[in-house]
Write a structure and sequence with these properties.
By secondary structure, the chain is an alpha/beta fold. It has three domains: 120 residues, 2-Layer Sandwich (Gyrase A, domain 2); 128 residues, Four Helix Bundle (Hemerythrin (Met), subunit A) (Up-down Bundle); 161 residues, Rossmann fold (3-Layer(aba) Sandwich), CATH 3.40.50. The protein starts with 9 loop residues before the first strand and ends in a 7-residue tail after the last helix. The model has no long low-confidence stretch (mean pLDDT 87). The structure holds guanosine-5'-triphosphate and magnesium ion. Guanosine-5'-triphosphate binds next to helix 8.
Length: 457
């Protein structure tokens, strides 16, 4: 999405507009003077209106009262985004909201706000930094308490402080390099060398602590996914339905019933996971089924927690390949069927790796068993967040990139005496850190951040 930059007054409903609610907040930003909206209100807006004070009044359309509401005026630059902002707390009927917005668009010179446009203006007016904007985005879209906390931490500038400290250490080291070029004779070569090494060590130490907080890029902790995988007829959809407590997926004895993956949300200990039922993996000539299987494999790669289901009575080609994936949990289904023990023993004999990875027999889907599963998933989540991982991909990417550059630079600095070469390598790292802080904010970064935002923010 190309972000639309406009300068005029914008309007949007900042609360959920999908269903009727008791109240809604409509926000208008970027107007010159409150008095331009005077005809819409019973209260005289041409008189003194105290900023940040709540006023009760009625809204008027062609002489008729259309709603009674409270409004608050935030006078720029002392507002969320530095502009004049008017917030209307109106009744939350969706038709009412639309009618009021239309009034301000048709007769008040406002335009519909693009997603994130209020915040974009805050960035433009230096009310928020780029990291704070990303923090806000994370906070608003968070699926767990940890993501909420990290969003808030970014918003309140905590992570920014770490980046800033890093940047200061970087500048210190950079100046030590320059010192060794320009003033080595004045301060002595030994002292210059000492200063160079010491400042590099201080920077590297701080940076390594940050690198430890970066997990692999495909490991999505913002939207963690639990993936149920296996051969056809292994019981994936049965488990999916059980965990959702509804007959969401079709369950049948026909192998290949689920042809594309299905997704639903489940809440485990305050974390919203996507639970995914997938197409059974097997060799298939059918184009649609083959596409479904391709998607299953991608989902498996990106999963936070993966469960392999095995029906020992229906093993087909491709099973060995499937076993190569690093599953978090392996379950044998069909334990109630006559001959289960023999079929399972036979399978473990043919695939000895099954014995060592601790597959569990699943007799019945009971609430005790569900509790056990839930606690396993939660345990993994708690373990993963204990290292305080950085959640935002853009930050992870930049930190990893800078880490590689730092490594090269450290090696280079041991035997390279050409300062110009060292300086060039150092600049590459400076670029990554500047981007982290938000000193450099190319359009595409802004676009990708703001395309995630909801309207009204
Ligand atoms: N007896 C018995 N039947 C089971 C068990 N688990 C699943 N089934 C049955 O096995 C058949 C296949 O189950 P599904 O849940 O549709 O299997 P699936 O893995 O989703 O299959 P596909 O969508 O074809 O890949 C259905 O008839 C289920 O009722 C079990 O533990 N015991
Ligand atoms: Mg299925």
């Amino acid at each position: 999405m190309k972000f639309l930059y406009s300068d005029g007054p914008i309007i949007a409903c900042s609360t959920c507009t999908l269903a009727h609610a008791a109240m809604a907040v409509i926000r208008i930003s970027g107007f010159k003077s409150l008095s331009q909206f005077a005809p819409f209100f019973k209260k005289d807006l041409t008189g003194p209106i105290e900023p940040r004070r709540v006023y009760y009044t009625k809204l008027v359309l062609q002489g008729q009262i259309i709603d009674d509401l409270c409004f608050t005026y935030f006078e720029g630059p002392k507002s969320y985004n530095g502009e004049n902002i008017l917030e209307l707390s109106v009744h939350g009927n969706t038709l009412n909201i639309e009618r009021i917005i239309e009034l301000f668009i048709k007769e008040g010179g406002c335009q519909h706000a693009a997603p994130g446009e209020f915040t974009y203006r805050a960035l433009k007016n230096k009310k928020l930094t780029l990291s704070q904007v990303e923090g806000l985005d994370l906070f608003l879209n968070a699926n767990s308490g940890y993501a909420l906390d990290q969003g808030l931490s970014l918003l309140s500038g905590n992570l920014q402080e770490i980046y800033q400290e890093l940047y200061d250490l970087f500048i210190k080291h950079k100046s030590s390099l320059e010192l060794s070029i320009d003033f080595a004779e004045d301060i002595g070569e030994e002292a210059a060398k000492h200063h160079f090494e010491e400042s590099l060590e201080a920077f590297a130490k701080k940076f390594q602590a940050l690198v430890k907080r970066v997990q692999p890029m495909d490991h999505n902790l913002i939207q963690p996914e639990i993936v149920l995988a296996g051969l056809p007829n292994s019981g994936k959809s049965s488990l999916f339905n059980f965990l959702l407590s509804e007959e969401r997926a079709i369950v049948s004895s026909v192998a290949g019933t689920t042809r594309d993956y299905l997704t639903e949300t489940i809440l485990i200990e305050g974390v919203k996971y996507k639970l995914i039922d997938t197409a059974g993996i097997r060799e298939s000539e059918d184009l649609i089924e083959a596409e479904g299987i391709k998607r299953t494999k991608k989902k498996l790669r990106d999963s936070f927690y993966s469960i392999l289901l095995i029906n020992p009575f229906e093993i087909v080609e491709g099973f060995a390949e499937l076993l190569n994936n690093p599953f978090d949990l392996i379950l044998f289904t069909h334990k109630d069927v006559l001959g289960f023990a023999a079929a399972k023993d036979e399978l473990v004999k043919n695939y000895p790796q099954l014995g060592s990875i601790g597959a569990i027999d699943l007799l019945s889907l009971s609430s005790e068993w569900e509790k056990e599963l839930v606690s396993k998933v939660n345990k993994k989540y708690l373990l993963e967040i204990s290292s305080k991982p950085i959640l935002l991909d853009r930050h992870k990417h930049l930190i990893l990139q800078a880490s590689q550059v730092l490594l090269n630079y450290q090696v280079l600095s041991k035997h390279e005496s050409d300062v110009a070469i060292l300086s060039q390598e150092l600049n590459a790292m400076g670029h990554c850190i500047s981007e982290l802080i938000g000193i450099v904010s190319p359009d595409q970064i802004l676009n990708s951040i703001f395309s995630n935002f909801c309207i009204g923010k």
